[in-house]
Amino acid sequence: MSGNGTSIAEGSLVLLHFDLRRQWLLRVDRSRQFHTHKGYINLGDLIGKPYGSQVKSSLDQIFWALKPTTHDLIMHTARRTQIMYPKDIGLIILKLALTAGSKVLEIGTGSGAMTVAAAMAVKPTGHIHTYEARKEFAEIAERNLKRASLLEFVTIHNADASAGIDGAGFDAAVIDVGDPWPIIPHIHKALAGGAPLVSFSPTINQVEKTTEAFTQGGFANVHTLECFIREIRADTGKTRPATMMVGHTGYMTFAQKILRSE
Q1: Beta strands in 89-179 (DSSP E)
Q2: With b meaning 16 or more CB within 10 Å and e meaning fewer, what string describes 116-135?
Q3: 184: helix, strand or coil
């Protein structure tokens, strides 16, 4: 339950913001207090307030009750695996043209970061079918999707996709497993003609093998990208790049299904 979308209700997700380093994604529960080193906040006091409102702690410290973005949902997911970062996810959503109504195949759910973003992009009429061989990871992803109120747009298959994929006519596919090559023929069969896909790989050796598998397996427009972002610390007279940045996380190899003449 999330009120009318502009005001906070019982059960709403809220990003409680103190500063850039201290912010928390919380589910509003009128019976709960949230404790920080800046004092505690009665979450029930947020109910009925519009997003963006100020709230004071028991120590008279000011916090802001912000509306969570997809980025916040991803970065606050529970995880036991390395998640795909928003910088990569955003590019993938754009290049795979994930929009409302898209039917998407995902191989390698992990903790569900990509799944959350994809579900947010394709709802309310689209659907994600995601495969995860490890039960514990599938369960974590399910909890993360429930927390984001997106589970109704996702079917989690706790199965090894190399044994086969249910369904056909998928509009796009996302692959995030260490050895995708045995699965590529199944993915080709499941995709609609011309449909785009991406394989996320941590190492160059994986990129080389994936490129070869795509090229020989009925795909064209095969190309690999890597994405970097750097925060700028803006302050009058002393603006500079942040000392730390999100550098290499993985390589994204994109392609599109082709229909070869028999």
Answers
A1: 103-107, 127-131, 154-157, 172-175
A2: bbbbbbbbeebbbbbbbbee
A3: helix
Q: What is the mean pLDDT of each run of 10 residues along the chain (262 residues)?
A: 70 91 91 92 93 94 93 78 84 97 97 95 98 95 93 97 94 95 95 97 95 96 94 90 83 95 58
SS3 assignment, position 76: coil
Residue 73 amino acid letter: L
64 & 143 share domain: no
Residue with tokens 């050895």: 179
Within its chain, how far is the Cα of 15 from the centroid? Answer: 17
Determine, yes or no, domain membership for 262: no
User: Among 49, 68, 87, where does a domain finish?
Assistant: 68
Nearest-10 crossing angle of helices 86-95, 113-122? 40
Phi-psi group of 239: left, alpha or beta (phi > 0 → left; psi -120 to 50 → alpha; rest → beta): beta
